[in-house]
């Protein structure tokens, strides 16, 4: 005789997938984040003058981490002024537009901050 049909699970899909799916997503996110950070790491390493690589590199990384933390905190702080809360997402599109625009702000600071350092990168 054929086996009895399987009864469908009443668990939500997220529970049925289990924690391993969420862990895989977190791992993939971490890997992609590290890959996108590579150009910054290479630039930071090449800008360090001989003799003080460790100190200057640590300063670069501290600045990067501070900016990352500040971005997360300011993003969370902007939710209320834009009216984004649980169940009310009307202000989400304007908030995302502001976020996208602020991602371009560091481009304006490249020339003043790097000064002649870009010439040194070309000769190395």
Short description:
It contains six helices and no strands. The protein has about 120 residues and is mainly α. It has two domains: about 15-75, no CATH class; about 80-124, no CATH class.
Distance between the termini: 76 Å
Biggest sheet descriptor: none
- Please bin the fraction of helical residues: over 70%
Series of H and E elements: HHHHHH
**What is the structural class?**
mainly alpha
> Using DSSP, what is the number of strands?
0
Total helices: the number is 6
List the uncertain runs: none
Mean pLDDT: 77
Percentage of residues in strands: under 5%
Polypeptide structure, described:
This protein has 124 residues and is mainly alpha-helical. The chain has two domains: 13-77, no CATH class; 79-124, no CATH class. Helix content is 71%, strand content 0%. The protein has helices at 13-17, 19-47, 53-77, 92-103, 105-114, 117-123.
List the helices and strands and how they pair.
Elements: H1 13-17, H2 19-47, H3 53-77, H4 92-103, H5 105-114, H6 117-123
Features of the shown structure:
0% strand; 6 helices; flat
């Amino acid at each position: 005789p054929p086996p009895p049909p399987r009864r469908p699970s009443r668990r939500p899909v997220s529970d049925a997938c289990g924690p391993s799916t969420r862990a895989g997503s977190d791992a993939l996110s971490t890997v992609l984040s590290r890959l996108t950070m590579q150009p910054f790491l290479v630039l930071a390493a090449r800008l360090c003058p001989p003799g003080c690589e460790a100190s200057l590199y640590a300063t670069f990384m501290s600045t990067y981490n501070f900016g990352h933390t500040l971005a997360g905190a300011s993003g969370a702080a902007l939710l209320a002024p834009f009216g984004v809360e649980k169940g009310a997402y009307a202000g989400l599109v304007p908030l995302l537009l502001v976020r996208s625009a602020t991602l371009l702000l560091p481009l304006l600071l490249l020339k003043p901050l790097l000064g002649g350092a870009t010439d040194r990168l070309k000769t190395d």
